[in-house]
Each structure stands twice: as structure tokens, then as C-alpha cells.
UniProtKB/TrEMBL annotation, chain A:
Transmembrane segments: 6-30
CC annotations in GO: plasma membrane
Species lineage: Bacteria, Pseudomonadati, Pseudomonadota, Alphaproteobacteria, Hyphomicrobiales
Annotated compartments: Cell inner membrane
The UniProt record lists the keyword ATP-binding: no
Family: Belongs to the CcmD/CycX/HelD family.
Name of the featured protein: Heme exporter protein D
Automatic annotation (TrEMBL), chain B:
Highest classification ranks of the organism: Bacteria, Pseudomonadati, Pseudomonadota, Alphaproteobacteria, Hyphomicrobiales
Location, primary (coarse class): membrane
GO biological process: cytochrome complex assembly
Family: Belongs to the CcmC/CycZ/HelC family.
Role according to the record: Required for the export of heme to the periplasm for the biogenesis of c-type cytochromes.
Protein name, as recorded: Heme exporter protein C
Localisation: Cell inner membrane; Membrane
Annotated transmembrane regions: 12-36, 61-81, 93-112, 124-143, 155-177, 197-219
GO MF annotation, one: heme binding
Membrane topology, record value: Multi-pass membrane protein
Keywords: Cell inner membrane, Cell membrane, Cytochrome c-type biogenesis, Membrane, Transmembrane, Transmembrane helix, Transport
Amino acid sequence: MSLGPYASFVVTSYTLVAAIVLVLIVWIAVDYRHQKARLRELESSGVTRRSGRQATDI
Amino acid sequence: MTLIDLANPTKFLALTARVLPWLTGATAILLLVGFYQAAMAPDDYQQGATVKIMFVHVPNAWLSMFVWGVMSIAALGTLVWRHPLADVAAKAAAPIGAAFTFLALVTGSLWGRPMWGTYWEWDARLTSVLILFLMYLGLMALWRAVEDPSRAARAAAVLTLVGAINLPIIKFSVDWWNTLHQPASVMRMGGPSLDRAFLIPLLVMAIGFSLLFVTLHLAAMRNEILRRRVRSLQMMQASQAA
């Protein structure tokens, strides 16, 4: 597959899209772990939800 | 499970846990097929291989407007129906929409340089999309600036609905004004003007990116619900300590 004289524009576009999508995925995954860790900390310090369920229960 | 059940964050989280793995798998398959079809698509007789930029530029451009549309419906949910998950949905969608808009601008610029001879032109389409990007950033800043989520939600909802005026301006800018940007070639009266060799990969990529948005949005909404649970537990802890 030859991309011709403007290959750098095509490759940069696809690389950038892949990079930004990857950043979004990693950011959301790290945020999820962070929130779960904070809930576990609160639970271990004895704070409970009004419903009586565990803080980390989904 | 009925739609009204989803108003309960706990039930929404349970549903999200069930559907996210399936959505992730479907998104990955569609995007892989889309990227393969994009790679195999023929060169355009005028644009050469740069036409391949269309397969990532157009889905991101569509989603930049679609996400604001989703946020506008969520804004109505906040202001009119006071749905408990409406502002969660709006807040979670903003950074994802900003990312899609940024990608639409940058890939459009990279496509424009070899085709138009310039990275940027202050024409109506490009400028209105840049304004959309700045509005996304403004909304994200607003959410961060106001500590109380319910107050931030109402202010953000009003700003979102005002900003929705920009959506028809973006869509019809190429018809209303003389722009460097080409007119619509897929969503137009009389059907798409694209050849099937380009249209099919483009539609597969568009569906793949749309599923990517749904997947990321649900995951981000789940995070936002957990963040609010952390906040309420911290407030309970503080009131118990006082």
C-alpha cells in the first residue's frame, strides 16, 4: 500500500487519532480504579452508605 | 428493567457492568474492520491517498456535534425533568466530545494542507467547529469551578442549551456561506454522493466511533456516579466527626 507524496499527513492523522483515543481509554480506566480505591478507603475507615450496602457495591 | 429504573444510579451501575464488556468487544471489532477497509480503500482520482484521512476525520466531526446533541438532551433532563442521571451524563460526555472535536479539527487541518494548500482558513465551517471546541473546554472549566454538583449542573445545562444554537450553524455553514470546506457529501438531499468504495468504509468507521463514544460515555458515567458516592460518604464522615 503506497500512500504517495502526502504519506506523512495520512500517517500523522491516524497516529494522532489512535493516541488521543488511547489517552481517553487510559484516563477513564485510571479514574475508575482511583474512585474504587477511595471508596475502599472510606469503607475501611467505618463510613457506610445510608442503604447499608458496601461503598464499593455496584 | 424499564427506562425509569435507570434513574436509580445503583441499577444503572449494574446495567453498565453487564453491557460494557459486550460494547467494548463490538467497538473493537468494528474499528478493526473499519481500519482494514480504510487501508484497502482505493486512492481518489483527485486527492490520491489523502482521501484516507476522511475515514477518521468525518466520524470525529460527526461525533463532535452528536455529543453536544446528547449533552443538550441531558441538559433538558436536568432543567425540565430533573432526572438524577442527566447531569452525570452531560458531565461525563464533555471531555469525550472535546477529544472528538479536537481530532476533527486537527485531522481536517492535516487533510487541508495538501488539498487546499493551507492548514487553516477562517471560513464558516472551520471557525464554527473551533467555537464548538472552545465551548466544550468552557463547560469542562465550569464543572470544575463550581463545587456543588447540582449548582454546576444547572449552570452547565443552560450553557449547553445556548451552545446548541451552534449545531445547525456548523451543519449548514457550507450552504449558507461560501466556504473553502466542501459541502455535505453523505447526509444530503438526494443521497450520498460518495462512491461505495469510500462510503462503506466510512459508514463502518462512523458506527465504530459511535460505539466507541457509547462505551466511553457509559464508563465515564460510572466513574462520575462513584465520584459522587465518594463525595457523599466524605460529607457523612465529616458530619460524624463534627
